[in-house]
Specification:
81 residues
Amino acid sequence: MVASAGSRAIVPSLEQSMDVLIALLVVSTAQTAALLTDLRQVAGLVAAFVAAIAAARLGWHGTDRVLARRSKADRSKTGKD
């Protein structure tokens, strides 16, 4: 009788521990999904920032090239080149 009572005590604890493990798995899966959603938004912001910096640098470089060509053309017209 002691052995059967002892074995019955073990079975509910195994079921409870499995319930706890399943609950932890479900919670961690939900948290991972939420974090990935947030990460996607942050990655979009970072990509937009990098694109803005790249556009600014390319714009500045392009403007600098145009001004250099105009300056070179002006110097060649006046004969100061």
